[in-house]
Amino acid sequence: xxxxxxxxxxxxxxxxxxxxxxxxxxxxxxxxxxxxxxxxxxxxxxxxxxxxxxxxxxxxxxxxxxxxxxxxxxxxxxxxxxxxxxxxxxxx
Length: 92
Known about the structure:
Shape: elongated
Distance between the termini: 48 Å
Strand order of the largest sheet: 1-2-3
Number of strands: 3
Number of helices: 4
Order of helices and strands: EHHEEHH
Strand content: 15-25%
Radius of gyration: 23 Å
Number of domains: 2
C-alpha cells in the first residue's frame, strides 16, 4: 500500500469540497489519504476494511511483544528440550 504523493496527500479544504471524490479514491486504491492543514499532515483517512486489517495486525504484534522480551532476556528453551519436558509432565 505505497502512498502516491501526487494523489494521496490532500488538504482539508479539498476534502470539504470533494468528499465523494476522496472517499471513492480511498475505496478504489485501498491507499490512505493524508489530510493536510496549512501544508502539514493533520490526519489520515483509511478504507474501513484496510483499517480493520491494520488493527488486527497491530493486535497480533502486541501479543508477540512479551515473547520477544522473553527471548531477549533468555527466558526460553529449545523446542526439543520443551517437548521432552512436556512429555514427562504429561506422562506421554
